[in-house]
Amino acid sequence: MTASPFSATSAVQQRQASEHITRDWPTAERVECARLLLKYPDATVQRPTPGSEDGPVAAPRRAVTYVP
Questions:
Q1: Among 6, 26, 36, 56, who pairs with 46 as Cys (CB 3.0-4.6 Å)?
Q2: Are 56 and 47 in contact (CB under 8 A)?
Q3: Residue ranges per domain, the chain?
Q4: CA R_g for the chain
Q5: CA 21 to CA 6: how far, in whole Å?
Q6: Both ends of the chain: CA-CA distance in Å?
Q7: 57 in Cβ contact with 41 (< 8 Å)
Q8: DSSP helix, strand, coil percent of the chain (3-state; round to 5)
Q9: Is residue 14 classed as helix, strand or coil in its secondary structure?
Q10: Taking the complete model, does pTM exceed 0.70, yes or no?
Q11: Residue 6 confidence class, pLDDT cut points 50, 70, 90
Q12: Helix, strand, or coil here: 49?
């Protein structure tokens, strides 16, 4: 069975990597990084499909809590 890219194991590994990479950063920078990482997929969803005449699709907003 192939693991989903959104599996619990993947989420744990991503969190561990993020904590390791940002371990020496000030809290404000860690929060800003998390905010931008969450903003990117929302912005990607809003882009129109290349070659389409449709405008951007509204992405649902997510409530996010940062836990240092």
A1: 56
A2: yes
A3: 16-45
A4: 16
A5: 20
A6: 33
A7: no
A8: 50, 0, 50
A9: helix
A10: no
A11: low
A12: coil
